[in-house]
């Protein structure tokens, strides 16, 4: 019985760590996407290269907003999972 409980605790801890790592990697990836899109947009605005780049403004806006929304969703999901994990730990 005790070994089964230790094994279950270890599996739960591994799942928690995996979710944290995954949430962190998704968040970092979304920030990188924001930077990749934002830097040429800033350069185009500062250097007046919009006609040279031929990038529609709607595409730039969508490319910036999607990673931000992804970051928010991942953050909220990880917070909810953390609260659920704490509740499960309190019950055991």
Please tell me about this protein's structure.
There is one protein chain. The chain has 92 residues and is mostly helical. The chain has one domain. 92% of the residues lie in helices and 0% in strands. The chain is built from three helices and no strands. Helix 1 runs antiparallel to helix 3. The longest helix is centred in the first third of the chain and has 46 residues. The protein is rod-shaped, with a radius of gyration of 21 Å. The model has no long low-confidence stretch (mean pLDDT 73).
Average pLDDT, all residues: 73
Order of helices and strands: HHH
Strand content: under 5%
Number of helices: 3
Low-confidence segments, given as residue ranges, are none
The helix fraction, in percent, is over 70%
The CA-CA distance between the termini, in Å, is 14 Å
Strand count: 0
The biggest sheet amounts to: none
Structural domain tally: 1
Tags for this entry?
92 residues; rod-shaped; single chain; 92% helix; mainly alpha; 3 helices
How are the SSEs ordered, and which strands pair?
Blueprint: H1 2-47, H2 50-53, H3 57-91
Helix pairs in contact: 1-3
Could you provide a short overview of the structure?
The chain has 92 residues and is an all-alpha fold.
